[in-house]
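Bumping with the actual sequence this time:
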Amino acid sequence: TTDAGPSVHSWNGTEWTAPNGITNDVSMWLRELFGYQAWAPPDDNDVSNYLNNNLVLRPDTNTDFVEISFDHRDPKVAAHVLDMITSEGDRYLKEANEEAYQSQVDFITKRIQQSGNLEVVNALRSYLMNVVLNKTLIEESTKYAVRVWGTPSVSSLPTKPPVLLAALLGFVLGPILAFSIIFFGRWIRSGR
């Protein structure tokens, strides 16, 4: 499941399913009443907004490390999302560096063929062997460039309240607070 604001969408493996429950039924009824679409599966903008609001990347200025955190009320979902992000980042870096590697190998091979100096040829061959060995070691590892240290941790800070719940509390507690202020204001002015 993915937490996307006031409603929880479920992915059954092939499609998104609409949220259920009394809160979501009221929310969908109000949306229909005011002419909005009652429910739609999350689109690219929804996912982008959700990640922008919940995903934090903090580069360390002293090292090449980046701390990635993801806020979600369920630690298992947060850990799963972080695992997907690091896996995709690793895959991207591996693909990006594949081109650089191939270019490097082509350049060294060309220089070996062009050079007539035996010392230079031997040095280039040694360097080429190191490049190929490093690439082989990296390809054999389960992770390419992304390393995860530690285990997922759960913050002691409270999570964001659901928007619908906050609005409902505002509608219920707002008038009570307003009447209380008016009552006590009149009571104080009257001198009782």
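The tokens above came from a reply further down the thread. Residues 1-7 have pLDDT under 50 and may be disordered.
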